[in-house]
Amino acid sequence: MRDKVRWAFIKKRWYQAHKVQELENARRRKYKIEPEEIEALLTIQGHKCAICRSPNPIDVDHCHQSNRVRGMLCKPCNKVLGTVKDSPIILQAFIQYLASPPCTLLT
């Protein structure tokens, strides 16, 4: 048991020391994108989320069909796109719901 705890501690320390490198490697594997391309996207976007404009987005947004990178998003915006399965139809339904919720029909 002691070895497991020790190994977990060593692994955690190594990850913390190499966090940026690991993130870059994961993005290379998953999205086939280099750190310079990420930086170029961030520069184009003004280092803000492409949707809500919050600062320092860290999530790579990509098309799930073609796997092409679309831009950099903050976590909440990326979660919304994932939840609606990148569907403009579902997003339009969200907009309609917010503009005219069912409760307005009760009065």
Characterize the structure shown.
The protein is mainly alpha-helical. It has two domains: 1-31; 32-100, His-Me finger endonuclease fold (3-Layer(aba) Sandwich), CATH 3.40.1800. Helix content is 56%, strand content 8%. The protein has helices at 2-17, 19-31, 35-44, 75-83, 88-99, and strands at 59-62, 69-73. A two-stranded antiparallel sheet has the order 1-2. It is extended, with a radius of gyration of 19 Å.
Summarize the entry for a quick read.
With 107 residues, this protein is mainly alpha-helical. It is built from five helices and two strands; from the N terminus they run αααββαα.
Order of helices and strands: HHHEEHH
Percent of residues in β-strands: 5-15%
Total count of domains: 2
CATH architecture of the largest domain: 3-Layer(aba) Sandwich
Please render the helix and strand layout as text.
Elements: H1 2-17, H2 19-31, H3 35-44, E1 59-62, E2 69-73, H4 75-83, H5 88-99
Antiparallel strand pairs: 1-2
Name its key features.
107 residues; His-Me finger endonuclease fold
